[in-house]
Write a structure and sequence with these properties.
This protein has six helices and eight strands. With 187 residues, the chain is α+β, with helices and mostly antiparallel strands. Strand 1 and strand 2 (16-19) form a beta hairpin. Helix 1 packs across helix 3 (51-67). The longest helix has 17 residues, at 51-67. It binds coenzyme A. The site of coenzyme A has 20 residues, from helix 2, strand 5, helix 4 and helix 5.
């Protein structure tokens, strides 16, 4: 598969800006992610939970980008791009079926102001436009109320619950599946 190129210029709506991660972001990213809500809803199998793991994840993410399967971006304030607000990714990119998924988390200090909603809107428009994606998926735990609100605010349709979908912290977890189609976003 073709490598995924970082949007150039970076995606922004004037409030949030989505940029590549830099090695110097490792400490802030670790601090941002070390909070109770991020730990509760993210799988340690997928998200780094220690500072050295963050550096290793940057290298792994670059391999995914080159392989064309995922693009990982830092969510930063447009007027202070060295400050980390959170992380976003377009992942499970499948050019055969023109499908991809979007994921995100925010640092505690960046919540409650619409940064995740803005991020998903920017990424939806980019995946539909640049990647020609025809179906964008968003998944979360059934009890992740804040994430469900992000999906709803961005116009995603709730399709149902995938039972026992993930291996999650020594047990298994259901997943709510949302999707957005290009025709939805034009509504
Ligand atoms: C999921 C998560 C990113 C949502 O964060 P959030 O701050 O609630 O989401 P947004 O950035 O879109 O902000 C929306 C909130 O800001 C408020 N807001 C303020 N200005 C806003 C604006 N211009 N646009 C949208 N919302 C705005 C909304 O009212 C909303 O608050 P509410 O939930 O009390 O109604 C966050 O809870 C998180 O990081 N959780 C842990 C990790 C996680 O669960 N990731 C997702 C896995 S699927």
């Amino acid at each position: 598969m073709a490598e995924l190129r970082y949007p150039d210029p970076p995606l922004t709506d004037g409030t949030v800006l989505l940029r590549p991660w830099h090695p110097a972001d490792a400490r802030q990213r670790f601090e941002a992610f070390s909070d109770e809500l991020c730990q509760r809803f993210s799988s340690p199998r997928l998200e780094p939970t220690t500072e050295p793991e963050v550096a290793a994840a940057f290298a792994r993410n670059e391999q995914e980008r080159l392989a064309g399967t995922a693009l990982n971006l830092a969510i930063v304030p447009a007027d202070d791009p060295e400050r980390i607000w959170g992380a976003a990714s377009v992942y499970d990119v499948d050019p055969v079926h023109a499908r991809a998924a979007v994921g995100y988390w925010l640092a505690p200090w960046a919540r409650g102001r619409g940064a995740a909603t803005r991020t998903v809107r920017l990424l939806a428009s980019w995946t539909f436009g640049t990647l020609a994606v025809q179906r964008l998926e968003l998944t979360c735990a059934p009890d992740n109320a804040a994430s469900i609100r992000v999906a709803e605010r961005c116009g995603f349709t709730r399709e149902g619950v995938l039972r026992s979908h993930l291996r999650f912290k020594e047990t298994r977890r259901d997943t709510v599946m949302f999707s957005l189609l290009p025709s939805d976003s034009a509504r």
